[in-house]
Amino acid sequence: MSHELKTGGDRGYLRIATEEAFATQEQIDLILKMVKEGRADRGTTSLWTFYGASNDERAQLTTKRLLDLGETRIADMDATGIDIAVLSLTSPGVQAYDDVDTAKRVCVDANDILADACKAYPTRYVGMTSIAPQDPEWSAQEIRRGADLGFRGVMVNSHTHGEYLDNPKFDPIFRALADTGQPLYIHPSPPPDSMIGPMLEAGLDGAVYGFGVDTGLHGLRVITSGIFDRYPDLQMILGHGGEALPYWLFRTNFMHQAGVRSKRYECLKPLKHDLFHYMRNNVIATTSGLAWEPAITMAMNVMGDDRVMYAMDYPYQYIPDEVRTYDNFNISDEAKKKLMQTNAERIFKL
Fold first, then answer.
1. CA dihedral defined by 166, 229, 277, 217, rounded to 10 degrees?
2. Can you tell me the distance from the alpha carbon of 86 to that of 344, in angstroms, rounded to the nearest whole number?
3. Would you list the domain boundaries of the chain?
4. Which CATH class is domain 16-347?
């Protein structure tokens, strides 16, 4: 242990953790019911058979922490020096439900529960609105309601029954984001059945690999569909170092431009800017689950040090030494304060 972890900015910055999950008992119970009845997709079945129904000690502790929005979570934040947690409903949110009315009801209840928690701990919690993309117009209304509740962003857990947000039918969600000036966080969810087979066969469907593959694809679909040309001020957040997009950016940009010029795909239309522009002006990467200096500094070099924010990924990766890793990064004091505090304050308007 190199140093004690304290809140209050004793190292020259506050620590704002920007991808911190919670769950409601109803959300979990309904997911497990779908799994038991064979109505859940393969990824949801894999994920929640482990976290919701196994005897694994880590899984049980994680679920217990997900359900706590009170003093236990605050104590965990204090123990790791986390000043503020930006909270959102854990994956897959309500997006795996096969009944739209159920999804909307559970979503409203979860948003209300989170709003109450933010009121109870106004200096420690910031909320993000959960939505049910199964109904885009309703989701737009819920985004506006979430803004009225004081939430500072919107969380989507990647695909919704295999559909991604670049589908034009989801445009009401983007209009609401633009109207409220809120960022969109695209968080991982288990890949859809059309993608997940080879990952499940190798035990690589979840956070180890499948999450990042699906979410990186989702983010890239949003970028290449021209959404940021229609909504140039929109901000999209991607966790886990930007879901590998910064690492691949040179090649992805080169091949995307070649694809547009060749007219090989009807869906690829010319954009106003290259992909570097959108990654540096419309995308923010968080560090959730990636406490590794080479990866984080690479993302900073590619996107700019005002485009990368700290996240712990509580309770899935609750490891105090990971916080010390960030404190000990060999970067400037200015860059470290941006990473840990001021970028989040700017993006979430704290």
1. 0
2. 9
3. 16-347
4. alpha beta
